[in-house]
Amino acid sequence: MTLPIGFLVSGRGSNLQAVIDAIARGEVDADILLVISNHPGIPALDRASRHGIRAATVTGEGSPSRREHQIEMARLLEQHGVELVVLAGFDRIVVPEMIERFPHRMINVHPSLLPAFANTLHAQREALNYGVKLAGCTVHIVTADVDAGPILVQACVPVLEDDTEESLTARILEQEHRILPQAIQLFAEKRVRIEGRRAVIGPARETAER
Ligand code: GRF
Fold first, then answer.
1. How far is CA 69 from the centre of its chain?
2. Which residues, judged by CB distance below 6 Å to any ligand atom, belong to the binding site of ligand 1?
């Protein structure tokens, strides 16, 4: 069955685009039912409307708290029948009340090899400054501990001697665009099982039937 998914975004939306494209190519069996932005007028919203995907802006203005703001978003996602929530460049820490509504059904893409360079908006810069030889990205399940939920997929990129923050960021982003659709497809194929802090990935159906 096609997996009904929703996105929370705050900016450019290139990861959203990567998923839209992967669905169009038939690589991901999911349907994007709703894209929610917490900022008005961002490129991610244009991408959604260009592809006929329902988009909503929920700025939280008038919400008494971050908690109320996010509960409003969660309600919208529930009303649309979203089963997996994808955080793709969402610039807020998600409150527990939101996570509880989608237990183990909310994922995030982070531009580092977690647990390195967690909980920062400058993971690529920090990796470069630290002098690591391998950088990368992670798709993980969102839990109340920021950037510390079970890891679903990771990809490495080498750090080159002449890398700048921009060049490293671009190389990591290419991999984000590859592993985020992959992670969603794992859910679509019902292959994700959580054991403690590990996400155990079951065999692909073809393999299982053999
Ligand atoms: C990505 O690098 C993602 O890892 C981070 O924010 C960025 C969002 O990019 N959380 P985009 O909006 O998907 O283009």
1. 19
2. 11-15, 88-89, 109-111, 173, 176
